[in-house]
Design a protein that fits this description.
Blueprint (H helix, E strand, L loop, with lengths): L1 H12 L5 E3 L14 H12 L3 E4 L17 E3 L23 E5 L8 H14 L4 E5 L5 H13 L6 E5 L3 H9 L3 E4 L10 H7 L5 E3 L5 H4 L6 E3 L5 H13 L1 H18 L2 H15 L23
Parallel strand pairs: 1-2, 2-3, 4-5, 4-7, 5-6, 7-8, 8-9
Length: 301
Amino acid sequence: MLVDCLLLALLRKRKVPYLLYFHGKGYPAYESLRYLPVRHLVRAALANARGGLVLGETLKEDVNHCIPDERLLVLPNGIPQLDDRQGALVKKDAAQVSIVFLSNLIPTKGPMRFLKMARRVREQEPGVRFTMAGRHASDHYLAQLKQFIAREGLGECVESPGPVYGADKDLLLRQADIMVFPTNFDKETFGVVNIEAMQWGVPVVSSPVGAIPEIIRDGVNGFIVDPEDISALSERVLQLVRDPVLRRRMGYAGRELFARHYSLDAYHDNVRRAMEFFLPLAGSAHPGKALPCAPPRLPRR
């Protein structure tokens, strides 16, 4: 962050206009720093931008102390749309339901919450299978996860393959029936894994963190649940386990939302829209200059 601020200070000195594309959050915390030079450096970097791009509507408030809404535009992430999706929803009526967690194995991303949910679901639906995939950052925490699996007798139903990438990740998601991502990471902004699951027609149960509720629309292509409420998390997952028609309907809805809003084609359209909006600002005398119109919003079809 500080390196970026120093670079932007050089751009300001040379009177080069710039936009900021925010992929993190937590910028108001810099306002309370006791070390004034850092606080002023960060504030100057934000306040002197011609405008900013954020990953979701709810993330505008994270930078509103320096950049008002009329100079902010939503530009969500996009990923390549894979061709082999015709059979992605066929297995959704399978007798053995597969539930997946896919993220870094760190406490704030929710792997232990996933395992506690798995314990409750397994008690009521013994045929369900679980996969907890991801790279671990701490041997100690990984040992805690494995100890929980052993202690609760989940070894036969929980698979932990470690990190998965490329074709292995695609196969994991293609074979999944439900994605569970119970994150409470304080810097969580988007959750790319959610749109990766959506393109395979997988309903997602996730958290009201960052822009996730804009991506996972509660009751449409998944559910939004307090990640700390294991009981509520388990009930939503059980609802999907027991209702293959609901899984299929939410899966189709997620796949359609992905194609419209989060594919690379959609991303290219959003970038073009952002360029059309912000290019006139490049020559403005100061970043606070009034804009000709309100920034366009993403359609919520």
